[in-house]
Design goal:
The chain folds into three domains: about 160 residues, no CATH class; about 70 residues, no CATH class; about 375 residues, no CATH class. With about 650 residues, it is mainly beta. A hairpin with a 5-residue loop joins strand 10 and strand 11. Helix content is about 10%, strand content about 25%. The chain is built from seven helices and 41 strands. It is globular.
Length: about 650
């Protein structure tokens, strides 16, 4: 290594005698041309271990192991890259006006561009079909990526009913400092009731909670609390693109979750507490909103979208759950920034089927989301819909009083011991909307106190409807409904959690770091010195280098690492050549290659690598011994 102009140039000379330290590929027959590069690498390891003479082409491998300083962050895009979990299929809205499948969503990042208000979308596998060209014919449930960020509210509009602009700084990986180094503030936002009824913070500190969040939120950048899930910091979250809808009866799938609450009639017929299985909801455009479901049942089904046999192909690792107030706030704040509507009011979804068919009122996406893009959080089809109007949306947020904890409509939500699945507000000693609201000043990021002036009336941003939780109406709902023009994305109201024709719900998915699928990148094609290096890496990624020529031709490979990283270099040796059969009675066997893997070491962004990749040894008809492998010819005579 040598130090030069503040960066490191690392020479990797992969040409060492006849057992050159290289990663090798294997011979792939024409009938097996679809074998992936990773399969080839895995097969190579198997061959080496068995000593089989099938080694042909030569590769070197550079793997980016471990989350580096800016792990999942894309310098090119300025956000954390969307993390795809099991069941997710990346889709792109193209210039021809339809969704298409993204074949390689890691390398092909054209399916999102937040600087152009184009948010990342995925479809799940419930009903998703597409043609041979990748054109989506029937959609699956859709979710939209909200990358980790810090926010600052326009000072003059903070805690008023006049809408302002929210300044957003996207945060790299799970860090709290933006790539530009701007200072941020992270404030704990979760409160729990202990056995004695007093409230403590998530960190276990007792006593009066300060209103530090109130003091900093209008002056400094605050890390949005939706990106903390229990004790886990998140690079982003997936939010349902539409509120929950009904799948047509013929294709609807029963979950294992039973409805709980008063017997009601919904789109599927009579729903009886304790016996009727809840059918899985869909999150698709132009479906009837999934209404007549109480808060407990919405909470329960939302947590079970990853159960075995689900139609989405989700796993439990998706951590599906009913949307919380702070997650509603995360979407609202991003929409109110330059990455969304930049202060423009979202148009109301006022579509109303008026009980035709029976029990049906609201429709997701306004019944024609493609033509009603002003109802989305971006003003185009890539945004999130039904955040203003549609049906009232139940969120996992309530005031922790005795009425809430004893209500059948809130039973499993209030009984949930893991507070990462809900937001609980502190009840005032003398409960009223106004008194409870004053205690909400100790919260931030939930689009309540910060974006309104008082507890009730038309007091939220855009002078929209507000009615904070009380002793009897202890549950929050968001977004208003189709029947009032006072409904906006900042509307907050309350009820007792009972099923109603005008209420629905929405789901959020939380990807964990462990669900990021490593990718193997090919830096150059065999025989080519044209090098293509990805703009960023994540844990487990590999970068494969091919030979740049044949025999004694070729060139050095030079590239600069695009980010800080902790890496290992793994190399497999190519075999040498067999001796010349015509020149000697016994043909000597080729020498086997060796294998090495370095310890982990840290490199910095723009450190330069110089790599020389050799080739397998070749037969030389004029000599007893074949060519050496790797960086040149080495003779070896066999005495018989």
């Amino acid at each position: 290594m040598k130090k030069s102009n503040g960066s490191i140039t690392l020479y990797v000379l992969i040409a060492m005698l006849f057992f050159i330290m290289l990663v090798v590929s294997i011979y792939i027959a024409a009938t097996n041309a679809s074998v992936t590069q990773q399969q080839a690498v895995d097969r190579t390891k198997e061959i080496y271990s068995k000593g089989v003479n099938e080694i042909d082409n030569v590769y070197a491998s550079l793997g980016a192991y471990g989350y580096n300083e800016y792990g999942n962050y894309s310098y090119e895009k300025g956000i954390n890259k969307p993390i795809l979990t099991q069941g997710m299929v990346a889709v792109k809205w193209n210039s021809l006006g339809y969704w298409e499948i993204v074949d390689n969503p890691i390398e092909d990042t054209s399916w999102y561009e937040y600087n152009n208000n184009e948010w990342a979308n995925v479809m799940l596998k419930d009903g998703l079909t597409f043609d041979a060209n990748g054109k989506v014919l029937t959609p699956g449930s859709m979710f939209v990526w909200i990358p980790r960020y810090a926010y600052k509210i326009e000072t003059a509009k903070w805690h008023t009913n006049q809408a302002g602009i929210i300044d957003i700084k996207f945060l790299p990986d799970i860090k709290n400092t933006p790539a530009d180094g701007t200072d941020t503030v992270s404030v704990n936002n979760v409160y729990k009731a202990n056995e004695t009824g007093t409230y403590v913070t998530e960190l276990g500190k007792t006593g009066t909670v300060t209103n530090k969040a109130v003091q900093v939120s209008s002056k400094e950048y605050v890390v949005h609390p939706s990106f903390r899930f229990g004790d886990t910091e998140l690079p982003g979250i997936w939010v349902a693109k539409f509120e929950a809808g009904y799948e047509p009866s013929a294709t609807a799938v029963n979950s294992t979750v039973k409805y709980t609450g008063t017997t009601v009639a919904n789109y599927y017929g009579t729903v009886t507490s304790g016996s009727t299985l809840i059918k899985y909801p869909v999150f698709k455009p132009n479906t009837y909103s999934y209404n007549n479901i109480n808060a407990t049942s919405a909470f329960n089904i939302s947590k079970h979208l990853g159960d075995e046999g689900n139609p989405y192909d989700l796993s439990e690792d998706a951590y599906s759950h009913l949307m919380k107030n702070i997650e509603w706030g995360a979407v609202s704040y991003l929409s109110q920034s330059k990455y969304g509507r930049n202060g423009v009011k979202i148009t109301l979804n006022d579509t109303n089927k008026n009980n035709s068919p029976s029990t049906i009122y609201a429709v997701t996406g306004g019944d024609n989301y493609i033509s009603k893009v002003n109802q989305s959080t971006t003003g185009n089809v890539t945004g999130i819909y039904d955040m203003a109007g549609g049906a009232y949306e139940i969120v996992a947020a309530y005031v922790g009083n005795s009425s809430a904890t004893s209500s059948a409509n809130l039973a499993t939500m209030s009984g949930e011991s893991d507070y990462k699945y809900k937001d609980v507000y502190i009840p005032a000693s003398s409960e009223s909307a106004a008194n409870n609201y004053l205690l909400a000043n100790q919260r931030y990021g939930d689009a309540v106190f910060e974006t309104s002036s008082t507890a009730t009336g038309s007091t939220t941003w855009f002078t929209s409807a507000s009615a904070f939780v009380t002793g009897t109406n202890f549950l929050n709902t968001r977004g208003g409904y189709y029947g009032t023009t006072a409904s906006t994305i900042f509307t907050f109201q309350s009820n007792a959690g009972a099923a109603a024709t005008t209420t629905s719900f929405r789901v959020v998915l939380v990807p964990s770091k462990s669900t990021i699928a490593p990718t193997t990148y090919i830096a150059n094609e065999e025989g080519s010195n044209v090098i293509n290096i990805p703009t960023s890496f994540v844990k487990g990624d590999k970068l494969i280098f091919n030979t740049t020529g044949t025999r004694n031709t070729g060139s050095l490979i030079r590239f600069k690492l695009p980010q800080n990283a902790t890496i290992q270099i793994e190399a497999y040796g190519a075999e040498g050549s067999e001796g010349n059969m015509a020149s000697q009675p016994i043909r000597p066997a080729a020498g086997k290659g060796a294998y090495i893997k370095t310890d982990s070491f840290t490199v910095n962004q723009n450190d330069e690598f110089i790599i020389l990749v050799g080739q397998k040894g070749d037969l030389n008809p004029s000599q007893y011994a074949g060519d050496g492998s790797g960086g040149g010819r080495r003779w070896r005579y066999f005495c018989m």
